[in-house]
Amino acid sequence: MSRVARLRRSVTAVAASVVTVSLAAGCGALDAGGETASATPAKGNDITVGLLLPETANTRYDKFDYPIIKSKVESLTSGQGKVDYANAGADSAKQARQLQQMIDDKVDVLLLDAVDAHAIAGEVKKAKDAGIPVIAYDRLAEGPIDAYISFDNELVGEVQGRSLLEALGGGANESKKIVMMNGSVTDPNAAQFKKGALSELNGKVTIAQSFDTKDWKPENAEANMTKAIAAIGEDNIAGVYSANDGMAGGIIDALEAAGVTKLPPITGQDAELAAVQRIISGEQYMSVYKSYPQEAQTAAEMAVARIQGRDIQFDALTRDKVDSPTTKDVPAQLVSVVALTTANIRSTVIEDGIYKVSDICTAKFEDDCEALGLK
């Protein structure tokens, strides 16, 4: 069985395990002060989790990931545990220094979302040599990783590709020219998104231009899109595959600067507030909603269970296996995703508490919200 098939087969089981473990956590199964059948904790509640996040251009990291992880660590340790947080601002050298500082500060466990998954491998090994477990968060870093928590990244790309084909309708065929705006080559997730999208798009449309966007920056996506428009012609672009929402914003800026008034369908990912508003207004066709609370809370549970020696809980949270270029069979959990369109804004980001209706339906989008029944 191929690795991809193996991962696909486990998604349903993993999702089910998340529900089970989350319910157990609510009853104290992962609470450091509770009685469990697992090994005697190696650490008490007075622990420090080092959290290294990659950049600030994507608003999710400061808005969701960090505060959710901080809150969960505190709740799991009766308020005694803390999170030492650093954001690298898309600078891999800076992140290496931040990781080294956390080693020097003797944090107990690391949650690492790598800027450059390959470049950080040496620092991961240093942490391991210092006896500090490293859990790869959201992106699979290279080096001796203890575990990995992320979304099913190939599925993300598949969802984006299918959604773009749906937007193109029954006329989707190789005469339709699209632009692919992929993520950064330093992010292994970007390659998985692209692979998943291509599995849906190849043979069904013509990919007239394709870009790997440095650092995922919207301004770089805008510059790439400007090149694509010049090469293809603004009236000949049937759709745009954008790997995330930030880049979708840059793509829209380039199209509007070129005088395009009827925008082609454009994909995205991350369900950023600006993207949700663009979906409501019709500027962006879809995004991929990923439950950041689920990912972040589970990452905190994994970190606390790992450092406290609670092997039963840790194993329950990491029932899958993934391979990095340097490490085979890394214990992992892959979280599923959903396409976000005008049809399910209320049942996803609103019901999950990511945004309130008032956050989305500002004065500029009042009429669009009313048309969708968002009040």
In short:
Helices cover 45% and strands 15% of the residues. By secondary structure, the chain is an alpha/beta fold.
List key phrases describing it:
45% helix; 375 residues; 14 helices; three-stranded parallel sheet; alpha/beta; seven-stranded mixed sheet
Structural commentary:
The chain is an alpha/beta fold and 375 residues long. It has 14 helices and twelve strands. The protein has helices at 3-26, 60-76, 92-104, 121-129, 153-168, 188-201, 218-232, 245-257, 273-281, 292-307, 311-317, 346-350, 357-360, 366-371; strands at 48-53, 82-87, 109-112, 134-137, 147-151, 177-182, 206-212, 239-242, 287-289, 320-322, 330-335, 338-340. The strands form three sheets. It has a seven-stranded mixed sheet with strand order 2-1-3-4-5-11-10, sandwiched between helices. A three-stranded parallel sheet has the order 7-6-8, sandwiched between helices. The chain has a two-stranded antiparallel ribbon with strand order 9-12. Helix 2 (60-76) links the parallel strand 1 and strand 2. Helix 3 (92-104) runs parallel beside helix 4 (121-129), helix 7 packs across helix 8 and helix 10 (292-307) packs antiparallel against helix 11 (311-317). The chain is globular, with a radius of gyration of 21 Å. Residues 1-41 have low confidence and may be disordered.
